[in-house]
Design a protein that fits this description.
Layout: E1 7-12, H1 18-25, E2 31-33, H2 68-74, H3 78-85, H4 101-115, H5 119-133, E3 145-149, H6 157-163, E4 168-173, H7 176-183, H8 192-212, E5 217-221, H9 222-227, H10 229-239, E6 252-253, E7 256-257, H11 272-279, H12 284-293, H13 295-298
Parallel strand pairs: 1-3, 1-4, 2-3, 4-5
Antiparallel strand pairs: 6-7
Helix pairs in contact: 2-4, 4-5, 7-11
Length: 307
């Protein structure tokens, strides 16, 4: 069964530093780090959270009667498929990427033919086929853990950890003031009520699953990653059986250092100072409203006196 794959899945609420953390892990010699957001969801997910979060960010649901090729096509994976199939309109078109999505699909079919179809096997084949089809991927020869990131997928961490027995999950949290201030900069931002409900739901699920999957569900604050990525992420590496690496000190893509994480994420400059100044962009009233919305988690994550 392919579901013995070693997967480290990352999740975070929007503008909470998930993409940033993903990029800090990118150059680790023992990791296959997905090139973009690994949006493994499908449009078949119809549960109590479907109206709250986009299905592309959820753990996938597959049709019972589907073929392996139909399963592959159902996985939304928007960022990678756009870059591979229509690179001129991709926000990542400036980065070299020798990759064929058709080759990946063929490899996916081969892997699933050997394992059979299941959600765990489908996802495992998806990650394996991606790196086998990526021709200019910078390999160390030491890779053994696949790393993916999708916003808000922390709400599905229990499914991932139950279905993939060798998987770990890393949830990233950011103080809600800076996070909401960055959300406001989007072309069509969520309003505060909608955003803070999502922020709270992500923290609830992360803490709940941490109690239910001790040793496999991990949480880091993006503030700690900003202050010392080597120590904060190195500790996570040790918990999943990997060595800390010097590459953790800087964000990269395919091993190439990034001067800013954008457009992988909205956080351009990942520094403690910018993070604090971003929170202070909010009005006094907005700051107090967010404090009211997030009150039950401010002590838990040591954010009570952040501003």
């Amino acid at each position: 069964m392919t579901n013995t794959i070693q997967l480290l899945m990352l999740g975070a609420m929007y503008e909470n530093g998930g993409n940033t953390t993903h990029r800090f892990l990118d150059g680790h010699p023992q990791m296959y780090v997905y090139p973009f957001e690994s949006q493994v969801g499908t449009n078949l997910t119809r549960d109590h959270l479907a109206s709250m979060f986009p299905t592309k960010y959820r753990w996938p649901t597959f049709a019972l009667e589907a073929t392996s090729r139909q399963d592959f096509q159902a996985i939304i994976d928007e960022e990678c498929k756009v870059r591979a199939r229509t690179p001129s309109v991709s926000k990542f078109r400036h980065m070299p990427f020798d990759f064929s999505d058709d080759v990946r699909a063929s490899l996916y079919d081969q892997y699933v033919a050997g394992t059979g179809r299941s959600r765990a096997d489908n996802v495992a084949a998806f990650f394996q086929a991606t790196f086998d089809a990526w021709k200019d991927y910078h390999r160390s020869g030491q890779e053994k853990v696949y790393v993916g990131y999708s916003p808000i997928i922390s709400v599905d961490a229990d499914k991932i950890l139950n279905e993939l027995p060798n998987a770990h999950f890393l949830h990233i949290v950011r103080n809600p003031w800076s996070a909401y201030a960055d959300t406001k900069k989007r072309p069509v931002p969520l309003n505060m009520t909608h955003y803070m409900l999502g922020w709270n739901l992500n923290q609830f699920h992360a803490l709940y699953f941490k109690d239910n999957f001790p040793g496999r569900m991990h949480i880091v604050r993006i503030e700690d990653v900003m202050a010392d990525p080597y120590s904060s992420l190195g500790a996570v590496c040790e918990k999943i059986g990997l060595e800390p690496a010097e590459t953790l000190r800087k964000p990269t893509w395919n091993g190439v250092e990034l001067q800013e994480v954008f457009p992988w994420g909205t956080l351009r400059k990942v520094t403690v100072e910018v993070n604090k100044s971003t929170a202070l962009e909010l009005t006094d009233r907005e700051q107090e409203e967010i404090r009211t919305y997030a009150y039950q988690y401010l002590d838990v994550f040591d954010y009570k006196d952040f501003i």
